[in-house]
Fold these 3 entries.
Entry 1:
Amino acid sequence: MKYMMFVCTDAEPDTDPSPDPDIYAWVEDNDAAGRRLQGSVLAPTSAATTVRVRNGQLLVSDGPFAETKEVIVGFDLLECADLDEAIEVARTHPMARRGRMELRPLAELDG
């Protein structure tokens, strides 16, 4: 099953002083196991553009639309047997301690 894992900042990170796991090792391990299909860090929110259409009018604005302290800073597309495996992959991501991971299964579109 495919999952999109959003890597997000968090206003309340873990206070454990031990060193963060190595992100390069995490990527290498999950790529080699076939669990990570793709992933990337995102540019800062200052580089974002929000696009909406309202009443047939195109509305384009700089930055994210939502005012929030937590922002998406990266993503990984995962291939896991089930949600339990996806949770284990997310748990071991270095940003799970400093931020938060949001897992969403990819939905099949009908038609």
Entry 2:
Amino acid sequence: MKRQTLLELVDYANSGGGKFTEAVSEDIVFVLSQNLFRSLPPARSHEAESFDAEEEEPSLDPAWPHLQIVYEFLLRYVVSNDTDAKVAKKYIDQQFVLKLLELFDSEDPRERDYLKTILHRIYGKFMVHRPFIRKAINNVFYRFIFETERHNGVAELLEILGSIINGFALPLKEEHKFVEKDSKLAEPVLKSLLKYWPVTNSQKEVLFLGELEEILELTQSPEFQKVMIPLFKQLAKCLNSQHFQPFTAHS
């Protein structure tokens, strides 16, 4: 009966049959919260000798047949033309967004894929929440870098941020500044990369080199000349490293 009711709700949201009133919106978000927001199961230890992140099959949530319908209802509610953002923002609020972000650590890739789509749609519809969503995503990254060193949803969150950055309008607002949109920012970004260059982790060094290559493609001559000397000093250290391996030429 519960499943059938949820399917009917999804059909109703798709039908465009009328406005979602404030009272209905409050009830909808209550139902969504009760069904989605939960404690995720303990993560499998990445330190175990037998664990291989690339070889291991993802952990699939046995409750997914139910959760999928709830996520579909949330998605249809958010994108519906009958959902007035000015009304719905009272219930799809900052706390709701934070709870969604917590679910990005789910080991089930199907759940993370839905979350990625839904959060991006929320970002598009609820303009008032945009600065908060960007800051909240950054906080997830900070916790990943400085505290937990593991999080299942980093790739999906980076995809969302990539789409958000691509949509920034010119001229850039102060909080929207990225090298891809303003080449003058290449100098401080390159200097930061050089400042925090990995010393003991060759895998991270390879990632930094890849990022360096992408930023250099966006760098204009005046900015390049300002970082040229420290940049080539760092590259010289890489060439002299015991881990150095020559790259094959691109075809």
Entry 3:
Amino acid sequence: MAKQFDVVVIGAGPGGYIAAIRAAQLGLSTACIDDWKNKKGGPAPGGTCTNVGCIPSKALLQSTENFEHAGHGFADHGIEIQGLSLNIAQMQARKEKVVSQNNEGILYLFKKNKVSFFHGAAAFVKSSEDGYHISVNGDKAETIIGKHIVVATGSVPRNLPGVEFDEKLILSNTGALAIDAVPKRLGIIGAGVIGLEMGSVWRRAGANVTILEALPTFLGAVDEQIAKEAEKLFRKQSLDIRLGVKLGTITTNKNGVKLEYTDSEGKAEVAEFDKLIVSIGRLPNTSGLNADGIGLQLDERGFIAVDGDCRTKLPNVWAVGDVVRGPMLAHKAEEEGVAVAERIAGQHGHVNFNTIPWVIYTSPEIAWVGKTEQELKREGVQYKAGVFPFAANGRARALGDTTGMVKFLADAKTDEILGIHIIGPLASELIAEAVVAMEFRASSEDIARICHAHPSLAETTKEAALAVEKRSLNY
């Protein structure tokens, strides 16, 4: 007889494993199905984020940032290094260890919270009075039944039409994270988060990196002032960023990849690379679910259609994360996973899309929450802005990293914070205060009057809040 559960979660990425754990915490019998495999064929829960996304990319970013500091920054501190070299095999081995530790951590959390884990590919079979029958195609084929189903199958990289990923010359994020030798010439299509982060990794390691972007503006979703500062700094780091590019033919040969394109002025160009990373977005991963067979509705873009509470058209079937509308961010998926588990348990789950932070883990880091200045202008919102540079911050000077700024945007009448934008050291950590402030609908004056430790990078946040009323104290 098939095992029965109150909740069956399909996918153990950030949305799925968190949904399963929260459901189990709420007293619901819970199963989670996931088919990611490690190199030995064993389970590797954590989805794209843990296996070929957020976690391994941050490991490589940290390794190469250390390498760059050792080669270019340590001398200022009186630290002299001779014979510096980069062992790519060791760097990749460390990355794999970090990934494995996260995989094992999730399996431990399942055991701790009494979540039944099934390793294999899941698909809808049918519905009955008992619930939905889900097949698990793993080491052994079996079927389990869930009263509620949460689909959290994530996303897959989008390829260029007619140009498939071979993960040797034409790389998705998977191949980009597994390069075993520094390419002399690395091409990247797409100047988004993945493109910039991978470009930073391999540029620091010694590659000549060219980034080709179809849009005429750099980081169009970022506050314009922050984006201009980022573009200036990245170009100074020798990232060759080419905007307004129209791609032509892409061919591979024994020497690498040949790419024909038209530049922003309409001039035909040819570029040759040892490897080419394609980072032009991601697509919802719904293949193999038997969505059509069960009547699970997809929207015109291929995402699972859900309402504001992540309910699908099928009773007791939910979907979260990259497979539904909204930003493809791990922490957005986690929040939806928690909210859905709580709704299943009869509680009132909550996700505020207006306070979801965004981060680009380049150097300098870029992080923001809320509205950009250009959005406020388009919407006709009257606002005040305050900016404070890291160059005027004592802790940043001591760190030796004074690039960037913190920017506040507040309602001109009520002073409620509408957006906070940061480019600079540890922006990914500093943005947390901004999210808390906006979630509690704080004013810039609230932050300006809160005592911040000295010396700290967080003082830039306080000073930017003071700058809204043009009364910053250190600039």
